[in-house]
Amino acid sequence: MRVVRNTNPLRLRRQGPRGWGAERGETRPGRAASAGDGAAVEGATGGAAAGRGPVWLFDLDDTLHHASHSIIPQVNDLMTAYITRLLDGDAQAADRLRADYWRRYGATLLGLVRHHGVAAADFLAEVHAIPDLLERARFQRRVLDLLARLPGRKILLTNAPAGYALPIVRHTRLHTRFHHQVTVENMWVHRTLRPKPDRLMLQRLLARHRVSASRAVLVEDSRSHLQRYAKLGLSTVWVTGFLPAHARRRGFRPAYVDLKVKSVLDLLRRSSPSLRKTSHARASHP
Fold this sequence. Notes:
The chain is of the alpha/beta class. The chain has helices spanning 71-87, 91-105, 108-116, 120-127, 133-136, 142-149, 162-172, 199-208, 223-230, 273-284; strands at residues 55-58, 153-157, 180-182, 188-189, 192-193, 216-220, 235-239, 259-261. Strand 4 (188-189) and strand 5 (192-193) form a beta hairpin. The relative contact order is 0.17.
């Protein structure tokens, strides 16, 4: 596979009947360091780090699996209950505050830490304590095949804690497709927790893996994360299939989104002049 320099990493050439070829020097999925043994890692670099192919940064919830079907509503309820106790208030006010902090900071946790001094580890553990978590998981096995065929390294980048994310990736076998898995515990910079969409955290992550922003592709359902990181020069893919109808309006694609797909399964089927044109225009007008 040949990657054209100074263009969007999504502009890739198919080789042969089996689809995408691997960039020379890339490590096969599942062969590099991962969190399969239970550690949440950013991982050691090497081998694939020196490659010239794309590096994919995948979100987990509502990107790789359908979390909003049953899991996210439960997490939101637990967050609201936590905030209600914290503020000794009513549930409706707590729910509004939860949503407001998510809109303002990209993560409810950041608002609670900043304005209420909440201990991040305690909050994350409590609001992700779902006894029947794996029974609630909805996952399409075809995603495993997609990730195996997609060229380049894959890094899982989730704001969820390891105690929640790692059981899901093991249960779905997603851990066999990612070279590294980054959970919120690995997003501390200068003794400050900096989950997505923090720019410094992502810059540090890319530097650690020796990846330039122009080689990175962020695949997310959260527009606030895509918008922030597009400014760093990353290519962006907006996954909309698990979003409510009003959030995925047909024909609507923000300027900071290079590619809009219903499912990650569309990644190998979607590439167009409009995608390349958008990416070039954004690079010319930061």
